[in-house]
Design goal:
Structural class: alpha+beta
Number of strands: 2
Shape: elongated
Helix content: 25-40%
Distance between the termini: 29 Å
Order of helices and strands: EHEHH
Radius of gyration: 12 Å
Largest sheet: 2 strands, antiparallel
Length: 69
């Protein structure tokens, strides 16, 4: 992965973070929609462990991924 962390912009991103949680319930309800680019943020390991990671509420998730129905 050759992209900068979307939160700090300082370090290389090492993984992706789902803004709307991928709990078992959400995975069953929304399936692959959870992996939509509108629900993903690429983060470095430092930011991924941080406490200020953005989250989406369900209605925000649905809006961010509305091109999939």
């Amino acid at each position: 992965m050759n992209r900068l962390c979307e939160l700090c912009g300082k370090r290389l991103a090492e993984g992706k973070h789902h803004l709307f949680s991928q709990t078992k319930f959400n995975r069953k309800k929304y399936g692959d929609r959870l992996d939509h680019p509108g629900n993903i943020m690429y983060l470095c390991s430092v930011c991924h462990l941080g406490k200020s990671i953005p989250k989406l509420r369900e209605n925000e998730f649905l809006e961010a991924t509305k091109d999939i129905t």
